[in-house]
Here is the input.
Amino acid sequence: MNFKNSVIWITGASSGIGEALTYALHERNARLIISSRRAEKLEEVKNKCAGNKDNIYVLPLDLADTESLTQKTEEALRVFGHIDYLFNNGGISQRSLAVETDIDVIRNIMEVNFFGTIALTKAVLPSMMEREKGHIVVTSSVMGKFGTRMRSTYAASKHALHGWFDSLRQEVAVQNIDVTLVCPGFIKTNVTVNALKGDGSKLGEMSKGQQNGMSPDACARKILAGIEKGKEEFYIGGKEVWAVWLKRLAPRLLNKVLRKSNVT
Ligand SMILES: NC(=O)c1ccc[n+]([C@@H]2O[C@H](COP(=O)([O-])OP(=O)(O)OC[C@H]3O[C@@H](n4cnc5c(N)ncnc54)[C@H](OP(=O)(O)O)[C@@H]3O)[C@@H](O)[C@H]2O)c1
Here is the structure.
């Protein structure tokens, strides 16, 4: 598989993993539509790309505004005529105990990570089904496979993505549409800086896990390599990835380990 000339729509492209995916795919001569809320940050990312920038289109959107996503998709489809890959990468994390998290904050995280992601996917799918070609990539998390303290809603939103996209994969295989779920562990991005506390304010600091995590560029390279190998679900990171296997093989042991671990 080769991303050259492919039309790729990336959400969460203004920062972290999505930004790194933008640079990596631009280097491979893909045609890109890059989205997130902050138009000025997206323009900065576009300007950092070397060489020809005509193949990069900035399309600001808010995943929480699900009603706007059909119109955003119409705009995206007009840019290069079709979409080969949708990288559902935009998202927000959480750093708060379940009992101390306002229900509005819980709804907001679900709105962005789950409802926004599936609304955008639903808007893009008909054009892929008509062409009988397409690939949906979802940045989930190892938190999509197990839960830890301070991440109840984040883990719930990522688990929900697995249920929805595993089902979708069975439905659209006949139309030659692939679905890939990517589950990173700790990647050194602003995800914890932007993570929401129980009252909805931002944590505002990078956690130890993130500080010691893999670089977003390395993560982006691994994401593209996994897609090229045709993987349907894969895990990226350090030793935290072993927890996914422990959850399957010895879930009670994992629960004991996690209770004693510093997971912030
Ligand atoms: N870093 C990690 O350790 C890690 C691990 C596992 C999974 N992930 C997942 O990786 C994805 C990317 O996160 P990251 O680590 O790169 O963090 P990040 O640096 O905070 O980037 C998050 C991206 O999502 C966008 N975003 C947030 N809310 C949005 C909204 N309402 N509408 C549209 N875009 C929105 C942000 O852009 P704007 O602010 O401009 O909207 C930004 O581009 C997320 O889904 C996250 O859950 C990260």
About this structure: The radius of gyration is 18 Å.
